[in-house]
Sodium/potassium-transporting ATPase subunit beta (Electrophorus voltai), 270 residues
Amino acid sequence: KIILFFIAFYGFLAGIFIGTIQALLLTLSRYKPTWQDRISPPGLTHNPHLDKAELMFSMNDVDTYISYTKSMKDFLGSYSEEIQRDPFKFEDCGEQADVYKNRGDLEMEIGIRKACRFSRSWLGSCSGIDDKHFGFSEGKPCLIVKLNRIVNFIPKPLQSNDSVPDEAQNKIQPNVIPIYCTNKKEEDAGKLGEVKYYGFGGGFPLQYYPYYGKLLHPHYLQPLVAVQFVNLTINYEIRVECKVFGENIAYSEKDRFQGRFEVKIKVNNF
């Protein structure tokens, strides 16, 4: 009798537990967090991924940078024209930066959303199409930069340009989240040289947002910006900081990739 009692007792407890879990699961959305008081700003990351945020190589030795160029080639594989040809998965979103692309609410029963096409050729000298070395063999390395995906995040352009450095004011344009890279240390002024930006509008155009998540937006391609350092001081280590500027994009000392990143670059010629 005691054994039967405990079997019934623990069976009852298990039933309550399973019922509670099932009831909780019914309240959860498949497409977005149930409780979300705010959406955190996205991280700003780059390819190639770097150990210790250091990009150091010799322009005369392919073995010192082949891992970087391979990483970039593999990453850009998903941006090939062949993959984006399917009209049921992708659509053209204009040749000019535009406002947000509204594809309905996350909970709307309209199925999988189409993704905006992003042409790899927009990345210019950093596309890997004409230069498979992405500038490394000439001492002019490229970084492919992206804002990390956050479901339902909509980046907002700045209402005021006061927070943007004077040198970057010319990068401000409608419907684009701008990016700007500069030397981190004052003593490195003049060592960085010219920085070129390639992509759709030279920043992150708004029509690529929002992102609807893996279930509803499985073919989504986030917009990219290629940053090329074309006149670095050779045999000199310089710390570079890249930032994006948006009304709802903040920076954090606790998260070195939130809205920005730093990288040490040294190009050798021996």
Observations:
- The first helix runs from residue 2 to 27.
- The mean pLDDT is 90.
- The helical segments are 2-27, 66-76, 213-216.
